[in-house]
Amino acid sequence: MTREEILNMPAGREMDRIIEKEVYGSDKLPVNYSPSTDLVWAFHTAEDIHAQIVAQGRHEETIVNEDANYLTLTFTGQDWAASFGCIYGDDEWFEPANTHWPLVAHGETAALAICRAALLVVDNA
Fold first, then answer.
1. For the chain, what is the domain count?
2. Is the pTM of this model over 0.85?
3. What letter would DSSP give residue 17?
4. What integer best gives the mean pLDDT of the chain?
5. Most trustworthy range by pLDDT among 32-41, 46-55, 78-87, 100-109
6. Do 13 and 29 meet the contact criterion of CB atoms below 8 Å apart?
7. Pick from 2, 23, 80, 106: CA 20 to 30 A from residue 42's CA?
8. What proportion of the chain, given as a percentage, has pLDDT over 90?
9. Cα distances (Å, whole numbers) of residue 83 to 21, 27, 47, 48
10. Which domain holds residue 112?
């Protein structure tokens, strides 16, 4: 998948299937499972993505460490921005929505932004 396809993918069963396959390696979509529309499932996906980042030793690449907040989620006033890891510069924290960091995704809902960011991380592996 291209970055543009990920960033423009709508919430729904197709995105949920892709999350299940790309994040969990499964082709079976559980009943009532919809991380792209259900914030509880989206946060489960975020937890699992963080665990994968740390397990793969990719935390320096994504600016995540085992003790850091694994997900940065911001309401921009227009939409939601999500990224995995905290963004720092000169000892100041920057909102991911205000950066051009490549692993930031936006969505109309928090769940959609989280799922798009998760797919960017998996795609960037």
1. 1
2. no
3. H
4. 78
5. 32-41
6. yes
7. 2
8. 39
9. 20, 25, 12, 14
10. 3-123
